[in-house]
């Protein structure tokens, strides 16, 4: 055989074999054999270009043979990582076929004419398509081929190569899994276990769980003596010492070091093999360093570092002298690198600077892990301090640094490796998934950011797309609504309604019961750890400082709860802005001056579980195979060319995380539970039966933070000034964090974000929402909805009755069915003949097709609360509507936010905050808006003047915390004497509405309520019975005649806005000058069948086209043979111009009524523009013509009880 190889002709341009390859002709069996042997020979000689040229064409012949893949991976590692590390002068050692292959990378020196340059190998790798993704894919193929082989050495070699590639890609969890399997393969402690031990140590030190690393690297000195079994205990001790140093446990490291290494000079020469293992683990050894010198230097460097940290100068100098003795000439020539070590002499208090020339890999690794993370330059102040090195924290730091802020980012572990990001599957949902316009914007910004970062950082980024599967009618409508949103931005969005076509495209799925599938092409699978590290790297390039393995221990507050500093593991750092983006630990930092000694946040962690296994045993999957979401079964599958992820979201399989002991924020990470995952596994096997052919899979349990309303929290907390929060991403962290980070950075730098974030603002929640019992009941339900779209009618079934009106029980007895808003229970409609023990809480959401459940109740009765109050118990929403419009009705509005604003500067303060003129006579009520600097709304409200210096303010329920934070911010900035008191819980608010409300109010008060005595937009204090101090305001918030009366709970008995200066005036004036480009309108939907058509829910797209009159033959009958041509308008130049924001059925109008915005960025919105267009709204893929109104139409009453019609307030 040797003679045959030696006699084989060289592959040149003239050889017949080369001509066959160039012309892509078929090869004979002999040629295939010769080509393989030639490739192996050239690989051994180090001619990697020629070896790769020989072996790659043989893949079709040996695709099921592990050795061909193994050799290609070895060559690829050499070429790829040579290219990446040529400037470092490194040595890479890989292990294949049961032996060590030493791959020497050129050190920092000039290259002789006979030696290949780094650029040469880089060119080979690029031409051959050798990338990290390619190596990862073929390593997965190699693992699948060797899984059942009887050759244990081949299995070990495959695991070792795959683990090495995973380490290089930063996939530490996966590498650790492979290292554990390597140990399982080894029958006794030997070479394989040594390599696996090094891999595990590298994984654990890099990802930061030092306590776990110490357990893995624990050493029992009684097991074996030094030198036995390849001196394994020595290397275990070195590993443990390194981990202890990285964890800053220098005392323990010293004790272990003294026991094992005081006599290091007597180490047996048999340790030679393990020196190469050390080089493999750290990948930074000089090519010229001999193994024995390496070992001695490693131990000495470790000792110097430990003793210097403990201020043990004599011991450190003793080891330094030993290091000097073993310095050789080659080290001096390559001495461009230095380590500066400051040792404080305990006796003389002098600082000694010791210079080491080109120290060994262990010293470099310690320098990287410890010096760079713990001993970096310590700043004394920063503009912004960011806590958390996950995707949220690195995104915020990146955007702040790019805006010129001095940013310090602190991560208690390693960037991207802790919390939810570290165990994330790396799946990014496209904007098509969300119906909310703001969330769509954030998702689009995130996706654009990651795409650009992937080009700059070259981390794994696969545009694989996603397929949503629906087996029920509601989810089919949901997919059609998603398609309507997606097709506007990407023509490649597909709807597939043929199960046979689905099976042909994805043969490993069971598709018989699928009614509709939607393909979203913009979804992405990426490496989340590498993404975070790239964000951190670019933030550092922009000037940010990043500190790993450094925790934020305390936030310090000064006057008026303003942040002035944070206390970290590196010491005190002055700052006025702190961003808490620490995921499940958000709000857990100590703040001694707060009542609970920490910030209260309305977010809580719960578990999610998924299976990580090898590639599906089919050739139909690859890296670009889409993600599959089965909406009805609540499972998700990500099948790629080297792995498979299977996730389930059943509510009964999700658990809130229990706190460990009494320590707040110390979470107990539960172990994965196969029993809880059982129902999801059954659904996964039903949808993808081939999963059952995979022999094993690892069940992984992660933790994610969820909010009660399924929306993220972002913004400044009302509990501490300068304390910003970004958390509660509800399982969609990767999809939204990029855009949220940009929005929060904009918020911090400019004061106001560009987009409307009222429904995301952390200030929308109250202290009651941060109650741990409430959150523990609610978050599993929210987690189960991770990949479900919910609409405005959706009501949760958990953690209800958090906040209730004083008349809640009377309303319940009357048949009220309640829905919640921000935890407050309010009647939605009334049932007929309610049962005493019924469930009065509505949960779920209205049907997307046809009439909702509340539509068809009929009849009504009269319910009497007391001798003075009447409530109509209406059993049809149409009847309720008719009562409000034709007679009188009473509505509980106690949930609305209420403030008393007093002080000598109150008028000037409110005049500046509000766009309307509020300096009106006492007893006047003004409806106004509060704008921010950009001219957008902070809130709308009514202000009733009670005295010269006091006002009563009513605002929406969701604004209770946000309003007071905004007003207090401006009160401090303006330095005015104003006192703002939240009195929401002090009053019961009842809205008496309808044309007969005037008569009812006269009856219960005994006073005249005529237009002259109590005109519209007035506020008076009245008495009802023996109750006094009741505030009555003649504004109903719904346009009809009526009053809202605010009853103190302890007494409840069962013009032009531009005539003054205000916030946002300049922005509004500029908008008037350039023309309004966006306007809110009312849409009346025509040709809609309420029985069978999908109902609008908000978020539907609005289209406008020009109407062109054309003559079209309609019919040919009038008199004689006369033909009549009738003009008909047809749409032309169809264009998307806006979206609906909310929708409801209008009983008086007899059609669906939508509120929408229409925009035109080219030349603005005018009345003429609106009138000339032909408009349609797309509801779940079906177009309906709509009429556009700038104001609600005024319709006469139809009731004969009150012939004097009135005109509703517009």
From TrEMBL:
Aminomethyltransferase C-terminal domain location: 1122-1188
GCVT N-terminal domain boundaries: 808-1051
Please give one Pfam family short name. GCV_T
Task: Provide the FAD dependent oxidoreductase central domain boundaries.
Answer: 750-805
What does the entry list under GO cellular component? mitochondrial matrix
Q: Which residues form the FAD dependent oxidoreductase domain?
A: 383-747
**UniProt similarity note:** Belongs to the GcvT family.
- This protein is called FAD dependent oxidoreductase
List the source organism.
Answer: Dictyocaulus viviparus (Bovine lungworm)
